[in-house]
Amino acid sequence: MFYNFLYPLADVFSPLNLFKYLTFRSIAAFLTALVLSFLIGGPLIRWLRSKQKQGQPIRNDGPASHLVTKKGTPTMGGLLILITLSAATLMWADLTNHYVWIVLGVTLAFGAVGFWDDFLKVTKRNPKGVPGKLKLAFSIIASGIGVYLVAQASPAPLRYMLAVPFLKDLLIPLGVVGFVAFGVLVITGASNAVNLTDGLDGLAIGPVIMASVVFGLIAYVVGNTILTNYLYLHHVPRSGELAVLLAALVGAGLGFLWFNAPPAMVFMGDTGSLAIGGALGAVAVVTKHEIVLAIVGGLFVLETVSVIVQVLSYKWTGRRVFRMAPLHHHFEQKGWAEPTIVFRFWIIAAILAMAGLATLKLR
Asked: Closest by alpha carbon to 282, among 257, 245, 233, 235?
């Protein structure tokens, strides 16, 4: 908004030239989301607590300690992320940019599905919420629309193409149906992977912040002709504007972590986890770095794989590979303290984020 209203006046007042720089507006979006989180976080949590009374229903089949330590903690804290992310993005991004609206729309759509799920959990006092098939159906519809719009906004040479990291010239044509199906898999998969990881205080938001920083850099680079030529990357015009949105997500994530750090004052719930996972997936599709997301978000992949392995193993052999899935619960059952699991998983996430970032140079 500020860019669209103030930058055209730069000829009259030269300091307004600052608004043309992505770096300036990204920093401003980060600070805006962070400060807004501090300002509204406390009142929002108090409001959620007053409405939810008993807080988020705790799974009976989860770690027994959660029934005591996490009882009464309100959920839907993802609203704090969505409100501050949206406000900062709308204030500092170029609102004529299609990619900004597409990614923000996908994020809010997944947030709406998550909010519906959390609302049913709280009001029905049932940890299951929305039936899984119905939630998946709405997720597929939201991501499918988003992927199709991304394809229409993309330059013709890259439309319906899959870029392969490490190989500078290889583009795999997927066709309309193939590209939409693959994009849906990426966005829905990322959304649910973050959702599965969100099981301990601060566990999911830390890696999300790291992944957002990396993809903010990727978006900036991919949208810059000089940098893409230097690094032999595929140039996606105007995708750099997503750096502003991702900087806002970093600020919103840090602001949420202030309240979600152990012991958590609020859980993000599906309202937050589905939304921010969907945001990362959508950005990966726009920037043609879908495969790199699996590296940068490798921790989310590990958590998801642990659930798949556990289910298949029990179904086929009657035995469990892990003491409990997702993976973080396995280590809880082994006696690891919650902060130990969170910090060690953050370290793994940081290593994977750096590995994903390194793919920009390895061509």
From this structure: 245
- Please state, in angstroms and as integers, the Cα–Cα distance from residue 330 to each residue in 45, 53, 275, 308, 326, following that order: 30, 30, 26, 14, 7
Say how many C-beta atoms besides its own lie within 10 A of residue 192's C-beta.
24
8 Å CB contact between 20 and 241: no
Do the strands 171-173 and 161-163 form a parallel or antiparallel pair, or are they unpaired? antiparallel
Q: For the chain, what is the radius of gyration of the CA atoms?
A: 20
Average pLDDT over residues 185-211: 96
Q: Once rounded to an integer, what is the mean pLDDT over residues 166-187?
A: 92
> What does the alpha-carbon distance between residue 356 and residue 349 come to, in Å, rounded to a whole number?
10
| CA–CA distances in Å: residue 249 to residues 82, 120, 254 | 9, 26, 8
For the chain, report the end-to-end CA distance as a whole number of angstroms. Answer: 37
Q: What is the pLDDT of residue 20?
A: 84
- 76 vs 295: CA distance, rounded Å: 28
What distance in Å separates the CA atoms of residue 223 and residue 289, rounded to the nearest whole number?
13
Arithmetic mean of pLDDT, 243-267: 96
Which tokens is 287 given? 């920037």
Cβ pair 198, 253 in contact under 8 A? no
Query: Cα–Cα distances in Å, from 243 out to 21, 155, 276?
Result: 11, 19, 15
